Amino acid sequence: MTEQEAYLKKMEAEKQRIDARIAETEAEADVRQAADEIKELSGAKRRAENFRRKLEEIRKRGTEDFENGKVELRRAYADLDKAVIEMESKVEVIRAGYERKREAELRSLGAQFDGWEASMARTRAEDSLLSREEFNFLRRSLQNTQAVLKDLMTSKGKDWPRLKKEYEAAWNDLCERSEKIRADTVKAEQPAGEQPAGEQPTPQT
Fold first, then answer.
1. Where is this region: Disordered (predicted)?
2. Whole-angstrom Cα distance, residue 65 to residue 36?
3. Which of 10, 76, 150, 160 could make an S-S bridge to 28, C-beta 3.0–4.6 Å?
4. Concatenated DSSP letters for 115-163?
5. Single pTM value for the model
6. What does each C-alpha distance from 126 to 131, 136, 158, 181, 190 come to in angstroms?
7. What whole-number distance in Å separates Cα of residue 50 and Cα of residue 56?
């Protein structure tokens, strides 16, 4: 293998490594929601295409002007590597913000569950709107959602959007169940004959 062939093989491996980093970060970015925020992603892709083009050019040159081609290729690679690092940093900030918000939501719901549990302890079982069985089921759902979020926060690449989808499905199910309990609680606490806010009794004819 000539020096040129060995060099081109090395740079082809570098290109594949960079392509994998771009693909992984794009998967994590959830570009449907954050495309406007991740201009670095399109910039990295443009530089990756420029690097690929330079690599093809130097391959076609043969031994002619090989040293100058190496300089151009190294410059294109350095530009690409910088763009990918900036892209990865931006996506990490977006991910961290999403995850912090989800953590706060779960803590808030957990505090609400603690309040429900305290309320159950103060009432007779037959008077409780939320049975112990129902409460334990909700608590397990909360713990499951917390576990999915924990997995999400340690995931990389294509696993991140998959776990994000699983988390949001678990969260939505949990919210639906807790909203139903809140609605039932409001109904039960409303004095007989009282109209919901904003509504007036229908006149008798």
1. 182-205
2. 41
3. 160
4. HHHHHHHHS-GGG-SS-HHHHHHHHHHHHHHHHHHHHHHT--TTHHHHH
5. 0.68
6. 8, 17, 49, 16, 19
7. 10
- Rounded Cα gap, residues 52 and 190, in angstroms: 69
Rounded CA-CA distance 57/87 in Å is 26
Q: Position 170: which residue type?
A: A
**pLDDT in 10s for each residue of the chain, 205 residues:** 788 888 889 999 999 999 999 888 888 766 555 556 678 888 899 999 999 999 988 888 766 778 888 888 999 999 999 999 999 988 888 888 889 999 999 999 889 888 877 776 666 544 455 677 777 888 889 999 999 999 999 988 888 888 999 999 999 988 888 787 666 555 555 555 555 444 443 334 3
Task: State whether the Cα torsion 38-43-46-50 is positive or negative.
Answer: negative
